[in-house]
Amino acid sequence: MKRNQFLLDAEILDVGPLRRTPAGIESVALRLKHLSDQDEAGSQRTAELTIDASAFGELAPQLGALAKGQKVAVKGFLTKRSHSSDIPVLIINEFRSI
Question: Would the pLDDT of 53 be above 90?
Fold first, then answer.
């Protein structure tokens, strides 16, 4: 298996402080909220979720500078938060304000 791509339009609920990993790479943690109507078996369904996300490297300070309530389109992949946790986190590789 190889495919793991996640696209999401979301509102920023929270932006953490800019940090550095033990390897010295800049990182930022965010919480994102998505709300939309989606097609499910020919009917409309409200899709709503809140997900934790992180960005590293040159994206970290760019995302870290955004304000709560700002809307973004993000692209990335899902992984577990840590080796000992199965809680998903979205790793953002690309974003734009919407």
Answer: yes
- Start-to-end CA distance of the chain, whole Å, equals 32
Which DSSP symbol is given to 54?
A: E
Q: Using CA atoms of 54, 56, 58, 61 in order, give the dihedral in degrees to the nearest 10.
A: 50
pTM of the full predicted structure? 0.91
Nearest by Cα to 7 from 97, 87, 82, 78:
78
Q: Judge contact between 1 and 12, C-beta under 8 A.
A: no
> Which residues are within 8 A (CB) of 42 and not within 5 positions of it... i.e. 6 or more apart?
none
**Cα–Cα distance measured from residue 84 to residue 30, given in angstroms and rounded to the nearest whole number:** 20
